[in-house]
Sequence to fold (256 residues):
Amino acid sequence: PFPGLYLWLYEHFPGFNLFREASKFFLIIALSYSVLIGYTVQVISDWFRKREKVLASYVLIVAASFLFLWNVKPLLTQEIGTLFVSREIPSDYLVLKNFIHSQEDYFRTLWIPATHRFGFYSSSHPAINMVNLTRGGWQEFVPFEGARDNWPDKAKIIDLLGQPYSHFVLNTASIKYVIVPSDPGNEIYKHYGPKRDFISFLDQIPFLQREQIGAKEVVVYRNPGFIPPIYVAEQIIRVKDQQELSAIFEHMSEGT
Fold:
């Protein structure tokens, strides 16, 4: 009856964010209902029988049983969704898994805007995503202060790839592929904007090349300049923040 209550408690009630979703409370609720409903039916049935209204007590029991069966119906028909619905991995993600897993060298994949639940990653091919990066490890390189929001918008997500130092950041982070996921369940793009906008933006980035892997909806870009995690640098430069990094690359582009 209160669909927004759980999210509100998750975001505002101290300690409630330890429970990512509500299934952890199902057992407690089911146990409470089993005792309270049974006790209630028993009390009302006894009240009817004391007044010699046996038929009414039977009607009550049948009604309670019908209510139970009606509540079970969404589970049987899978209308309830979420954890109670069987899911199949889309073929595109199997193709992507085989494509990445077949490569022996170490590299990262960057998912834009976010990683899909069926996205493949491993210890030798870890996956990172732009939403988490703008709120975490790459905060200093994100021009938007609001990029730390829970649901950063499209401009905040893609702006990092439009900076003068973007190619350098992806290379040194060993990011070999940039992936725009398919989203058949609309779990990602409802928060961050249309998928086509991300693809249009990435198509315009000169250092990324479209990679044809045989997938229909998952779009993959290759970063040819990616650097292995262990390499010898010609020069070490300490950078404090995004402004200083931009200034360095502006000087480099001017040849100074």
User: Anything to note?
Assistant: The chain has ten helices and five strands. The two ends are 65 Å apart (CA to CA). The chain has two domains: 5-84, 91-254. The longest helix spans residues 26-50.
